[in-house]
Amino acid sequence: MILGCHVNFTNEQLLGSTKQALSYGANAFMFYTGAPQNTMRKSLDMDLTKQAWSLMKENHIDLKHVICHAPYIVNLANNKEEEKWQFSIHFLKQELKRCKELGVSYIVVHPGSAVGIERETALQTISKALNCIIEEDGVMILLETMAGKGTECGSSLEEIKVILDGVESKNIGVCLDTCHLNDAGYSIQEFDLLLDEVEKVIGLEKVHCVHLNDSKNPMGAHKDRHENIGLGTIGFSALSYVVQHEKLKDVPKILETPYVERAYPPYQFEIESLKAGHENPHLLSDIMNFYK
Ligand code: FE
Ligand code: FE
Ligand code: ZN
Q: Which of 6, 15, 149, 292 has its CA at 20 to 30 Å from residue 99's CA atom?
């Protein structure tokens, strides 16, 4: 089972992220190279990176299971303000370089929001931007399936397919987010049907990451509010089924569930119950007792 969570990229950079992931019992993890809400980035320290690599090796974390996430303010869909759009492209290019330096193979990117331009045009604009960014032999961009909040693009498999079709390179993949899929109107409870759909529309070989989240909202709500595993509308058994699915066994599953009371990371406990395949009926109180 390749299962981990979102971790911080602190002063110790990738080394700090690795230590944090290990403390949760994760064998995969995802990080932002700085704050997710802005594009200020510090330069990388190769010494820390090398220490991170050896710590991963000692603990059998495969670098292929370490994923980067681009900040959400990057918007490739709208080029009405040419300068902003060019900035997003430039920033992502830099981010790809940083990933390469860190030895990371995948970066998850939100396709973007149409805001004021037509949806079809927005999808084409995303492909156009990606064509400026992707390097044939470089880090692979994974487009994340979105909830469809506001004018978010990529809230259906078909829209993701349209974007992929506009990209010249084959060096592009997809990240499935269970909360987003649920909120977009796909049933995680009928996951085999959903995987058939993914196979038919996109191709399962394109999926290189799964974001494993429960949802605070019912299917089709177009909201995007993540919930702790088992405490939302998707439920433990459906999410446990996703983690254990044979067809996704080589794909890292990454938790992006909320901190309990905005203070306590739930990951150690969520990973433990998902590994065991048994829901922890005392999840929240166990987490709070542990950290208090
Ligand atoms: Fe995301
Ligand atoms: Fe996600
Ligand atoms: Zn989300």
A: 149
Q: How far is the CA of 36 from the centre of ligand 2 (A)?
A: 12
Q: Token digits for 11?
A: 């002063």
Q: Pick the closest to residue 113 from 158, 182, 159, 68 (CA basis).
A: 159
Distance CA 82, CA 9 (A): 31
Question: Three-state SS for 29?
Answer: strand
Among residues 213, 149, 231, 199, the alpha carbon closest in space to that of 3 is found at 213
For the whole model, what pTM was predicted? 0.97
What distance in Å separates the CA atoms of residue 200 and residue 207, rounded to the nearest whole number? 13
How remote is the CA of residue 211 from the centroid of ligand 2, in Å? 5
Are 42 and 34 contacting, i.e. CB atoms less than 8 angstroms apart?
yes
Q: What are phi and psi of 106, to 5 degrees?
A: -130, 140
C-beta of residue 131 within 8 angstroms of C-beta of residue 169? yes
Tell how far the Cα of 167 is from the centroid of ligand 2, in angstroms. 22
CA of 144 to the centre of ligand 2 (A): 7
pLDDT in tens, 117-167: 999 999 999 999 999 999 999 999 999 999 999 999 999 999 999 999 999
Helices (H), 24-118: 46-58, 82-102
168-188 per-position pLDDT tens digit: 999 999 999 999 999 999 999
- How many domains does one find in the chain? 1
% of residues, the chain, pLDDT over 70: 100
* Domain encompassing residue 174: 3-291
Q: In this predicted structure, what is the pLDDT of residue 206?
A: 98
Q: Report yes or no: 184 and 154 within 8 Å, Cβ to Cβ.
A: no
Three-class DSSP category at 104: coil
Cα 119 to ligand 1 centroid, rounded to whole Å: 20
| Enclosing H/E stretch for 30 | strand 29-31
